[in-house]
Write a structure and sequence with these properties.
Strand 4 (84-88), helix 4 and strand 5 form a beta-alpha-beta unit. By secondary structure, the chain is of the alpha/beta class. It has 9 helices and 12 strands. The strands form 3 sheets. The protein has a 5-stranded parallel sheet, with helices on both faces. The chain has a 5-stranded mixed sheet with strand order 7-9-10-12-11, with helices on one face. The longest helix is centred in the middle third of the chain and has 72 residues, at 115-186. It has 2 domains: 10-145, Response regulator (Rossmann fold); 187-356, Heat Shock Protein 90. Helix 7 packs parallel to helix 8.
Length: 357
């Protein structure tokens, strides 16, 4: 067995039954930086390739017992096989093509001139470089696949954790809402009771977002149609004690980020609460309508309207506490918009907010 190559030198297995030519090539190529091991038959070459590691192999076509094509097939079957450069005669292009089809990295025409050694050295070097590039590419591809799999696993774990967090937050908010409701039933002052109902509506708006997040596959966006449907139902139940009218909803299936959904829900809750309290007289029937629709231009329009008494004729703001108006203004700023009242609404009041999504 030959000694290992020096660092930086390619290990070459040269297979040729011509002993003299093998020695010549060994001397010439070692001057060019190769460490050369010679084998004088296909079987001897295959045995050497199975016993040692080589960077590249050159095999001659004409050899007794087993020709180069047969030897190359056996060489390429060795686990971790090195690339093979095939050596043919000057008028044997058919054999060269057959070798390339069988898996040779390149071929060199054997001649008596010095060019043969130069061409062989170049072909061997390029074959090693090509294998190196291929292995680096495959390693990079495997690393990328592994990295993507790790990333997908991390994202999946985070999604599960986020759903669990949203579940717990929603449960906590439900508990807080129940406590506020109990406190409202316990107080006798009607103004305090109304303030607690308003607080419960605000809590419900936030709670509905977290309910949607832990029951959805998407933990970053909220389907506003489903969200508003749940919010309207929640408000209808919590405000029923205060004489709330029927709340009708029309909403397109539009998705918003969690933060925008929370802000939008608080605005809707405030506007519905105000409409339920101030739009109609106690003995008067009427409804509150909520619409959230696309404008077809990359934006959406939120409208909350009624057919009640409308806005004060002197231009004063709609009825309601200063806190409610402050909350609406703050949520509007976070959405990059503001609530405006439509002066063309024929009867009652119509609050409008336009959003860009």
């Amino acid at each position: 067995m030959s000694t290992p190559a020096e660092p930086g030198r390619y290990r070459l297995l040269y297979i040729d039954d011509d002993v003299g030519l093998c020695r010549l090539i060994q001397r010439r190529l070692e001057r060019r930086g190769f460490s050369v091991v010679c084998a004088h038959s296909g079987a001897e070459g295959v045995a050497a390739a199975e016993a040692e590691r080589f960077d590249v192999i050159a095999v001659d076509h004409y050899m007794p017992g087993q020709d180069g094509l047969e030897a190359m097939q056996a060489l390429l079957a060795v686990p971790g096989s090195a690339p093979v450069v095939y050596v043919t005669g000057s008028d044997e292009s058919r054999i060269a093509v057959a070798a390339l089809k069988a898996g040779a990295a390149d071929y060199v025409v054997k001649t008596a001139s010095d060019d043969f050694i130069d061409l062989l050295a170049s072909a061997l070097t390029q074959a090693v470089a090509q294998v190196k590039l291929t292995r680096e590419r495959d390693a990079a591809a495997e690393a990328l696949v592994a990295s993507n799999e790790r990333l997908e696993a991390i994202v999946a774990r985070q999604a599960v954790l986020l759903r669990e967090v949203n579940h717990r937050v929603a449960n906590s908010l439900q508990l807080v809402s129940s406590l506020v409701h109990m406190q409202g039933n316990a107080v006798t002052d009607e103004a305090s009771r109304a303030a607690l109902r308003d607080t419960q509506a605000r809590i419900g708006a936030i709670m509905q977002v977290h309910k949607r997040l832990y029951t959805s596959e998407d933990v970053e966006q909220v389907d506003i149609a489903e969200y508003l449907r749940g919010l309207v139902d929640e408000l209808g139940q919590s405000l029923s004690a205060g004489g709330c009218r029927p709340i009708l909803l029309e909403a397109d299936p539009i998705k918003l980020s969690t933060d925008k959904a929370v802000a939008l829900g608080v605005v809707v809750a405030e506007l519905i609460t105000n409409a339920c309290k101030y739009a109609y007289a106690e003995d008067e029937y009427g409804e509150v309508r909520v619409r959230f629709t696309s404008n077809g231009e990359g934006g959406v329009i939120l409208a909350v309207e009624d057919d009640g008494v409308g806005l004060p004729a002197d231009g004063r703001k709609a009825q309601g506490t200063g806190l409610g108006q402050t909350v609406i203004a703050a949520m509007g700023r976070s959405l990059g918009s503001a609530v405006a009242f439509d002066p063309t609404h024929p009867k009652g009041a119509r609050a409008v907010m336009r959003l860009t999504i």
